[in-house]
């Protein structure tokens, strides 16, 4: 903590003291004072890992920093490790005490001066631990010290800014002999959006278009509105401009429109609001009619809805009460692969990042270890159980000024884990090792295992059930939904803002880390992902194919006993149709009970087979890791383009076949084939008479028995309805 009554130095007569803490081979030093003082105060904490202690004594030296020559020893205090007390939170911190300095030579005689300090065996839950100097990181100096500590970050509060461009008046172009082709361009920071050119050439154009931006608190950018004239295809001329601060806009919480306002424009962007006293200074100016608001009823998405971690709207007054608590213990990792070379051998400086909702956490960096142990615990409030927590492991490449100063080093990805909270049983602690998989340009690589403990605690079962019956996103997403292109564009802008703001923290959560956690490239084309999604669909449909195959076996009497039982069940259901729905739901109930014993015991992890990452070729991987726009050679791009054309050609054929079947159904009554339509409407007339005259049970019984008839009564040729349907015309013969 501090010292007092220290003797003056032998050379200068003053005292520039610092403390050196020594435990075995580990040695830590406090800062020293440039000014001469014998009452120094340091308030620094030193932490030594218990597993690596190689000494039975702790030595605390007080030294005097000398400009010339060797530093003077002022005294020391020695502690026997067996006598050091243990502190376990929530016990209060150990009170520091004054200790008299002994002669540093160990002769047992006291010297002048005292030092106040506290020594204890503690845990990582100690309040002093996060900011302490760690013996494991003794080799890190300068700015790198801040990059190894654990930190908690909070994403900036994001808003959607909606600019409704209604109309403008008195848009006079520089060439007064022509009417302008007017459009509006709006800019917020790095985001620029434009309206369409007014379809009518006029000085009083009308648009009524919405432009939506993402902005973050505290608001740093201004909204710049400019009205421009398209003189020709390569030249736009500014007619008027205005810059508006964000704090003048109304914050909207629901779908009710805000009031629109007229703004005066000029060439230099200093236009004023209608009614402003400065309006009198403008004898004439163009003006624009806008309705601008900050949308508080939407959730600004910076991550995909497939694995979203937060669904709350921006406005805090619209938040509901939390439904539970998420606790994650980041225990450690094992079997990590070396990520770089250090002194001729492989090394990894690993840290873990967890993201849920607006809260990000970053563990401390464990230096030069392939089996790091973090043992850090974090908690989050849960507002919706159908959300996902993401954990990523990275290699810290910013531990020294030489590394970080060149601006090239990027923290390398080691792997990522996602856990959906709805897959966790309430109040149960899951302690599990998750494989860390990372896809690299040369293939899939397992980089180790992440060991974590997870517990999801529900506060109210009623609130959980209530959530399952309500929309995932706030109601504004359904009342005034965005288009798919808008959602993608706004998400990309939100990710950029979050990455920029977190990158300005101290220590920064770097852009490459934020982008990896938010899956910034998930929307880009990937042959591997396309194959994975195709086989997901095939796996989904395989169950229906199996049912169809089973029915075919029943109809072909491959298993006579089963066929007889199906006939009996069919007869019962036809005679008592009120049993159909109860039987179906009871059957699903028993299937659910049967599957309970084989339920997953651990949360699911990244699946290399499902991701189609094992059989992916090097060329497909190179394409997936290519930049956008491409940076590859022209010949390689042509080859990939031809391959994409062949894949798209097959998709095009399938889509065309689906469209043809739908058009054939439409042609039944469209008289495109007059004979087919005549036959069909006559059949409909006859069917209506038969169905009216005969009991429905008899018709159902006859149709079912005909479908289940024995193979002896079947023909190998297609049925009459199938032949008739395939002869119907589609519009494919009208395609060029």
UniProtKB/TrEMBL annotation:
SMART domains from the UniProt entry: C2 (SM00239)
CDD domains: C2B_MCTP_PRT_plant, C2C_MCTP_PRT_plant, C2D_MCTP_PRT_plant
Protein name: Multiple C2 and transmembrane domain-containing protein 2
Domain of life where this protein originates: Eukaryota
Residue ranges of the TM segments: 579-596, 679-708
Cited PROSITE patterns: C2
InterPro entries: C2_dom (IPR000008), C2_domain_sf (IPR035892), C2B_MCTP_PRT_plant (IPR047257), C2C_MCTP_PRT_plant (IPR047258), C2D_MCTP_PRT_plant (IPR047255), MCTP_C (IPR013583), QUIRKY-like (IPR047259)
Residues of the signal peptide: none
Domain C2: 1-99, 140-263, 307-434
GO cellular component terms given for this protein: membrane
Family: Belongs to the MCTP family.
Lipid bilayer topology: Multi-pass membrane protein
Subcellular location: Membrane
Keywords from the named record: Calcium, Membrane, Metal-binding, Repeat, Transmembrane, Transmembrane helix
PANTHER family attached to this UniProt entry: MULTIPLE C2 DOMAIN AND TRANSMEMBRANE REGION PROTEIN 2, PHOSPHORIBOSYLANTHRANILATE TRANSFERASE ISOFORM 1
Pfam assignment, any one: PRT_C
Molecular function via GO: metal ion binding
Organism expressing this protein natively: Noccaea caerulescens (Alpine penny-cress)
